[in-house]
Design brief:
Its main location: membrane. It is found in: Cell membrane. Belongs to the MscS (TC 1.A.23) family. There is one protein chain. The chain is α+β, with helices and mostly antiparallel strands. The chain has 17 helices and eight strands. Strand 1 and strand 2 form a beta hairpin. Helix 5 packs antiparallel against helix 6, helix 9 runs antiparallel to helix 10 and helix 10 runs antiparallel to helix 12. The radius of gyration is 48 Å and the shape is elongated.
Length: about 550
C-alpha cells in the first residue's frame, strides 16, 4: 500500500511540474506572438487594421493558447494515470528518455533541444502572423466590387486559408523538429506521413473554395457572353453546368492531392498511376458533357435559326428532326468518351465491342418489336408523315404531336393527356394539319322557305367570314346534304388553314343565326300525323236515380233520458 502511495505521489509531482512548464511555455509564446504582431502592424500596408481587430486577434491568440494547454494537460493527466496503473515512475521515464536523447554528447543534445524549441516558437509566431495576414487579405478581397455578392464565400475561403496555412506551417515545423532531434526513422516517417496527409487535405479544401468562388464569378458574368454575336455566346449559355463543374473541381483537386502525397511518399507506384488515370478519365467525361451541351446549342442554332423562322413549314420540319439529330450526336460523343476512358485505363475496348456485337445480335432476335419500332420511326421521319405540332389522329387518339423519336411518338390530346405510341403501331394516320381542312356547318331549313334564297344567303355569309379571318380568296360550297321529315339540311363547307376549323365553325354558327333571324327565316317544325281508328260509339250517359231518405233529427240530450 505504501509503495502504491509513493508511486502516485511521484507521478502527481511529475504531472504538476509538466503542467507548470506547459503554462509558462504557453505564456511565453503568447507574449512573443503579441509583440511580433504589434511590430508587423507598424507597416504602412496594414495601417488600416482597426483597434477592435487588433484586440480581437490578441484575445483569439490567448483563447487558443488556453485550448492547447487544456488539451495537452488532459493528455498529460491521462499519461500519468496510465503510468500509475502500470507501475511506472514518470520522472524516471523522462530522465531515461532525456539521457537517451543526450547520448554521449550533452552539448549536442542541448543544441538539439534549443533548435527544436526555436523551431516550435518560430512556427507559432509565423502561424499567428499568417493568420493575421490572411484575415487582412480576406477583408481586402471582400471589398472588391466583383465580389460584392459573394461575402459569405469569401469569408469561408478566408477561414480555409487560415487553416491551410496553420497545417502547413505546423506540419513543416514538426518535420524539422523530428529531423533535427535525431528521432528514429520510423517516427520521422510517421510524422512526415501525417504532415503530408493533413496538409494535402486542407490545401485541397482551400483550392476547392477558391475554385468555387472563381466559378461563381465566371458564371455570374456568363450572361454578357450570351448577348454577343460571336461564337463565345455558346459559352454564355452553359450556366446550368455550374453544379457538375463544381463536382469535377472537387474530384480533380482531391485526386491531385492524393496523387501528390503518393508520389512524395511512395514514388512510381500504382497509387500515383491510378490517381493520374482517374484525373484524365474525369477530364474526358467532363469534356464530353460540355461537348454535348455545345452540340445542342449549335444544332438548335443551325436548324432553328432566323432562316428557319421565315418559313413556318420549314421550321416545323426542323423541329421534328432536331431531337433525332441530338440523340445521334449525344450517343456518339458519350460512346467516344467511353472508349477513350477505357484506353486511358489500359483496357483494350476491341474485345468488349466484339462481345457487345454478339450480345446485340442475340438480343435482336428477342427484341424484334423494338427493332420494328426503330425502323418504323425512320420511315415516319423520312416520309414526312408527321411533324411536331401537327393535329393528328392515330389509333383512335387525336391530339397534337409533341415529339417524334426514333422509337416512340408522343401525342397530347385535348384533355392534356400525353400518349406515347410506339412507331411500329402507327398503321393509319389522319393528319389534320396538311394544306387545308374544311369547316363544316349544317343548317336545317323548313320546307316552306325559299331554299335558293337561303343558300345564297349562307354562301355570302361564309365567304365574308372566311375572307375576314384568313385574308385569302374564299372557297365555300353550300349544298343540300339531307332531306329530313321536318327540314332540309344545307351544309356549309369552307376551306380554311389547318387547325382553324373549330374557330371557323363557331364563327359561322354565330353569323348564320344572326343572318337567318334578320332574313326572317323560320325554324323547322316536326311534321307528324296521328290517325285513330276505333269501333267504340259514344252516347249520352245513363240517367242516375237518387233515392231520398228521411231527414236526420238533430242530437238532443232530452231524448236520451
Amino acid at each position: 500500500m505504501t509503495l502504491h502511495l509513493d508511486l502516485l505521489l511521484h507521478n502527481l509531482v511529475a504531472l504538476c511540474i509538466a503542467i507548470v512548464m506547459l503554462m509558462l511555455l504557453s505564456e511565453l509564446v503568447v507574449r512573443v506572438i503579441h509583440r511580433a504582431y504589434a511590430f508587423v502592424l507598424r507597416s504602412p500596408t496594414l495601417e488600416n487594421v482597426t483597434a477592435d481587430e487588433r484586440k480581437t486577434f490578441r484575445s483569439r491568440v490567448r483563447r487558443r493558447a488556453l485550448v492547447w494547454v487544456a488539451l495537452v494537460g488532459a493528455a498529460l493527466m491521462a499519461g500519468a494515470a496510465f503510468a500509475t496503473y502500470r507501475g511506472i515512475r514518470a520522472l524516471d521515464v523522462a530522465k531515461s528518455a532525456f539521457v537517451g536523447l543526450v547520448g554521449d554528447d550533452p552539448a549536442l543534445a542541448k543544441m538539439r533541444l534549443l533548435t527544436a524549441l526555436g523551431i516550435a516558437v518560430g512556427a507559432l509566431l509565423v502561424d499567428a502572423l499568417a493568420r493575421g495576414l490572411a484575415d487582412g487579405l480576406g477583408q481586402a478581397v471582400a471589398r472588391s466590387k466583383w465580389l460584392d455578392k459573394r461575402r459569405e464565400p469569401v469569408a469561408e475561403v478566408t477561414i480555409r486559408l487560415r487553416k491551410a496555412l496553420r497545417l502547413v506551417i505546423l506540419g513543416a515545423a514538426a518535420v524539422l523538429i523530428s529531423e533535427k532531434s535525431g528521432l528514429a526513422p520510423g517516427t520521422q516517417r510517421t510524422v512526415l506521413l501525417a504532415t503530408y496527409t493533413l496538409g494535402a487535405f486542407y490545401v485541397s479544401r482551400l483550392a476547392t473554395g477558391i475554385g468555387y468562388l472563381l466559378l461563381d464569378v465566371i458564371f455570374d458574368n456568363s450572361t454578357r457572353l450570351a448577348r454577343l454575336e460571336s461564337p463565345l455566346r455558346y459559352l454564355g449559355n452553359l450556366s446550368h453546368l455550374l453544379g457538375i463543374t463544381k463536382r469535377v473541381v472537387d474530384y480533380c483537386v482531391y485526386l491531385t492531392a492524393a496523387t501528390w502525397v503518393a508520389d512524395a511518399l511512395t514514388p512510381d507506384t500504382w497509387l500515383s498511376q491510378a490517381g493520374r488515370v482517374g484525373i484524365r478519365i474525369i477530364a474526358i467525361f467532363y469534356a464530353s458533357r460540355v461537348l454535348v451541351e455545345l452540340a445542342v446549342l449549335l444544332i438548335n442554332d443551325l436548324f432553328l435559326g432566323k432562316v428557319a423562322e421565315e418559313n413556318p413549314q420549314t421550321l416545323q420540319q426542323r423541329k421534328t428532326l432536331v431531337p433525332v439529330a441530338l440523340g445521334f450526336v449525344r450517343y456518339a460523343i458519350y460512346f467516344s468518351a467511353l472508349v477513350m476512358g477505357l484506353r486511358e485505363a489500359s483496357i483494350d475496348p476491341t474485345p468488349l465491342l466484339a462481345g457487345a456485337g454478339v450480345i446485340g445480335v442475340a438480343i435482336g432476335f428477342g427484341a424484334q418489336t423494338f427493332v420494328g419500332d426503330i425502323v418504323a420511326g425512320f420511315f415516319i421521319l423520312f416520309e414526312n408523315l408527321l411533324l411536331v405540332g401537327d393535329l393528328v389522329e392515330i389509333g383512335g387518339i387525336q391530339g397534337r404531336v409533341e415529339e417524334i423519336g426514333v422509337r416512340i411518338t408522343k401525342i397530347r390530346d385535348e384533355l392534356g393527356v400525353l400518349h406515347s405510341i410506339p412507331n411500329g403501331e402507327v398503321r393509319k394516320v389522319a393528319n389534320h394539319s396538311r394544306s387545308y381542312v374544311n369547316a363544316v356547318v349544317d343548317v336545317h331549313v323548313p320546307y316552306e322557305e325559299d331554299v335558293p334564297r337561303v343558300r345564297a344567303l349562307l354562301t355570302t355569309i361564309a365567304e365574308k367570314e372566311v375572307e375576314a379571318r384568313t385574308g385569302a380568296p374564299p372557297n365555300v360550297e353550300v349544298g343540300v346534304e339531307e332531306l329530313n321529315e321536318g327540314s332540309i339540311v344545307l351544309r356549309i363547307s369552307a376551306r380554311v388553314p389547318p387547325g382553324e376549323n373549330k374557330e371557323m365553325n363557331d364563327a359561322l354558327r354565330n353569323r348564320v343565326v344572326e343572318a337567318l333571324c334578320k332574313a326572317q327565316v323560320g325554324a323547322p317544325r316536326p311534321r307528324k300525323a296521328v290517325l285513330i281508328d276505333s269501333n267504340l260509339r259514344v252516347g249520352p250517359p245513363p240517367k242516375r236515380e237518387i233515392e231520398e231518405s228521411a231527414p236526420v233529427a238533430p242530437f238532443s240530450p232530452a231524448q236520451d233520458d
